[in-house]
Amino acid sequence: MTIRRPTEGPEKDVSDWWKTAIIDMEPGKIAYHGYPIEELIGNVSFTQMIWLMVFGELPPQNKAALLDAALMSAVDHGPQAPSIAIARMASTCGVGLNNAMASAVNVLGDVHGGAGEQAVALYQMIDNIAAEKPLTFQDAVTEGLSEYKELHGKFIPGFGHRFHPVDPRAPRLMELVAEAKASSVVEGRYLDIALEIESQLASSKGKPIPMNIDGATAVIYAELGVPAELARGLFCLSRSVGILAHSWEQMQQGGRNKGPIPRDLLWTYDGSARRAVKKSD
């Protein structure tokens, strides 16, 4: 069978049905955004490859290192995280790794998994306000927070954590961003915005509301020019590592049909009392 790429006529219309600038592939040839795969192998890291696939260019090593830190820092948060718990439960149902992973990734939505995207959008909103209005930096952050609350409610994504008084991942990531800013790898605008949000939240609440992993990775994504919606996709890539690890571990541990609570405990029932079915006349 001869495989070819039509250049004219009706067959060209068929070939044009799908268009992509990502991969050029034909027998004996694979290239991503113009780079031959054989040259990429051994010279480009997985994180650099993610950047190339998404943005179309190979990243500078220092920017790739920031992306790598963001991706590795959010891989897992234990079985209390719904996505991880679902992965483990699915594994006890006799499905394969791909099924368990898909089940878990499918729950990474607005509430569980969406805060990073939302934080990027918040930072970008504030950055636009600061650029367009004659306000001090602090007032621009205040106005941005107010607008965000009007649109989305009082919850500010990326700050505070239900388990950690201080999320241990966030300060280290901010150290890396600060170092990158000092070396002119990134501008640091979004770092400054996030730190000012943290300060204003502490003042308004009367107690610290520290940045969490979502707020910290959002700083990195925003500094690297990642669109807000794409930030969620990157988080899904990151969390997939933990999902894979927990799915595999559960398969090794065994167990069948494990639900969300042990079998000797029953859920709370708050419906109608026991009642008889009335027989019809």
TrEMBL record:
EC class (word): transferase
Record's keyword annotation contains Glycoprotein: no
Protein name: citrate synthase (unknown stereospecificity)
Cited Pfam families: Citrate_synt
Pathway: Carbohydrate metabolism; tricarboxylic acid cycle; isocitrate from oxaloacetate: step 1/2
Native species: Enterovibrio coralii
Key word DNA-binding present: no
InterPro entries found in the cross-reference section: Citrate_synth-like_lrg_a-sub, Citrate_synth-like_sm_a-sub, Citrate_synthase, Citrate_synthase_sf
Entry EC number(s): 2.3.3.16
Family label: Belongs to the citrate synthase family.
Keywords: Transferase
GO molecular function: citrate synthase activity
GO biological process, one term: carbohydrate metabolic process
GO cellular component terms, A-Z: cytosol
Gene3D superfamilies to which the protein is assigned, alphabetical: Citrate Synthase, domain 1 (1.10.580.10), Cytochrome P450-Terp, domain 2 (1.10.230.10)
Source taxon at top rank: Bacteria
